[in-house]
Amino acid sequence: MKYIALLRGINVGKSVKVPMKTLQSVLQEIGLSNISTYLNSGNALFESGHEPLALTELIEAKLEETFGQAIPTLVKRSSEIIDIANAIPADWQNNQTEQTYVAYLFNEVASPQLIEELPIKKQYMEIKYVHEAIIWNIKRENYNRSHITKIVAHPAYAKMTTRNANTARKLAQLCSV
Description:
CATH architecture of the largest domain: 2-Layer Sandwich
Helix content: 25-40%
Number of helices: 6
Number of domains: 2
CATH superfamily of the largest domain: bacterial protein sp0830 like
Strand order of the largest sheet: 2-3-1-4
Shape: globular
Distance between the termini: 13 Å
Number of strands: 8
Structural class: alpha+beta
């Protein structure tokens, strides 16, 4: 079965640096096959006969052994990544006039009610929950008014990993190959 591992919080600022070639090697060492990565933000596609929970445990343990610190990893079936990308309205873009992001949610926080708990101003954005993910679109002139940056203070923030719509769509495309 095809999967994607989404590593959270790597290669930004002072976070742990994970070269994609090293990530590929780590995944190969634990027995995964047909491994490829996309961008430097921790997106790895692979095949395995294991279930997502077992894969998460294997990958996180090997990453911690390799890099000396825990790296939260969300493993999704390729079909889930495709369903999430297909749920992004076609007119929601990530460009000079608007931002569209997908927050892929770890099981502990995956609930439609999460949107109501986030410290955002929904009147300045469009936001929806689909397939254990939250997708939002904000016109750039409303970015600060939306308070989207305040989600980093919410306890659920540590249990989500975000990608812009362009990346989410590309990952779905790569899953379809």
